[in-house]
What does this fold into?
Amino acid sequence: MANTNTPLSAAARFRAMLREDRTIVSPGVYDGLGARVCLQNGFDTLYMTGAGTAISTLGMPDLGLATADDMVRNAAMLASLDRNVPVIADADTGYGGPVMVARTRYILAGVAGLHLEDQVIAKRCGHLGGKELVDEATFLARIRAADAARKKVGDIVVIARTDALQSLGFDAAIDRLKKAVVAGADMAFLEGMTSKEQMERAAKELVSSPAENAYAEDQAPTPCLLNMVNGGVTPLIDAKEAQRMGYKFVIWPIFALMSAFNAYDAAAKELKKTGFLKDQGDESGVRGGVREVFELCGMSECVRFDEEMGGKTYSNGVYMHKICAGHVLAILTVSHPAGESHNSTTAIRDEPQRWRAGGITCTSSCTYGVLPIR
It folds into this structure.
């Protein structure tokens, strides 16, 4: 009998999460390493930050300089790392008119959700001043185009974002979001709130506005997104308070940028000053060393898959192991006479007489080598 169990799409998984009685906290990531760290720590969604994508790929600020190609390429990479974890991506202004918005590239990339905003094409970060808006009709056309595209190609959660609070005021901004929900948006995102009073009022007014499109019926009343930007204009609150206010989805877009900046800056200062960068860690091993990072990013899985498929690409091992401190590393293959192999340096250290090295054995019976992963 054929297997009829079709895996849930990323959008379906995200919709199911939104129906749960909780507030989802999503870390903002922009590269594979940051995403892998978040996955390892158990986050069940990832948010692709547009600012982070612009900074990491272009070395430029979030001023609308990243193209659709830049954004889609990054979103597709992030979505590919774990298909069970929905990725919600910044889609800026849609990168053009309705035809451009409807190109469905985010859907085909496996993204679970995206947000579209009402700034002009030459946009800027929502926590900067001087933002310019398109008129309401243009904004709603973007939302309708995204809704129409998914009905033809595949589901994606459409999040309507407005930056109208700064220039048009609170009531006008809320009105734009309510109309966007009617036009097809599943979720509402009021950017740039400056007080907890605004945050509470926005959630109250938007949640009470039931979604009227087919894709959002199962989520009504309208879920709301809260944007927590470190160093931005919106007061920072924790997930418990966000849930009390009525928010279903909270993003921390500067999470990875801030963490990386602080770590890079500290390490750069040390290397520049001393010409040396000491290992980070303790007696259990080097923290963030090459092996740990490779394992985080799937080294063992790649080797195992290659072997299971009959490949021999990594049969001679992938890691250099230093069994005894103070000796120069030498690359060699280590194998047991009986054909065993092991990825544990302890096994070789404790039983050196049972192992032979295909190259060099140090005089103190300690072995350096490349060990196949099993």
Observations:
- The chain has a mean pLDDT of 81.
